[in-house]
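Inputs:
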Amino acid sequence: MLVSNIELIPGRRIERHLGMVQGNTVRAKHVGKDILAGFKNIFGGELVAYTELLSEAREEAVERMLEHARQIGANAVINVRFSTSSVTAGAAELFAYGTAVVLDGE
Amino acid sequence: MELIVIASLTVLGYFFGRIAERKHFESIRLREIQYKNILVFNERHLPPGQWQKGPLVGGNVVISVDYFKRLVAGLRALFGGRLATYESLLERARREAILRMKADARSCGAQMIINVRLETASISKGNNDQIGSIEVYAYGTALVT
């Protein structure tokens, strides 16, 4: 499964477009991590736990998007975009979307 | 009592925040020199040449302001104008995210990254809707010859 955020996959030809696919996940923060982050809010600096949490969540959103693409018979997703929104205090939604395409076999 | 807590938090935030920020900027500058041979563009078109692969690469960072800066920003918000303390926070976060994206690209063996997009989100909003920490995610298509 190839993924790209431009309109093509370098070195391959697109045979068919199958429409938009998407994947999302809503994640809440772990309480313990939240308390640690509270301390960091005093001293400033990177919140490593959150960085990891969000990057995991983003991977999951991409994985769901790819699952959706596989189901409709695509072998690549192009023009991928990400978006993040905070739903309530302490939870964030990560959303990935793109166009599912079929590439010619080589 | 409450005043003492706030005052000590402010002083702690001021010193530790300053040290952390200076260190962070130093490490950013150093790594920017290390990664300067990976070119970053935000245009969508493929440059001329033969490209074998174009994996999606990205880097994210969550970064928080210290107590002192938040206080200063809170005071500044009364009068309006530039919030220099938040400007440096966002600058650090963006440069860090771009560097992590470049590190990801280098592990794929790429020479350049095109169609770079930056996304910013505020993660935790504290009291009075004050922004405590922000996430920046940088992503793009890495090109491998």
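Chain B has one domain: 2-143. Flag for discussion at group meeting.
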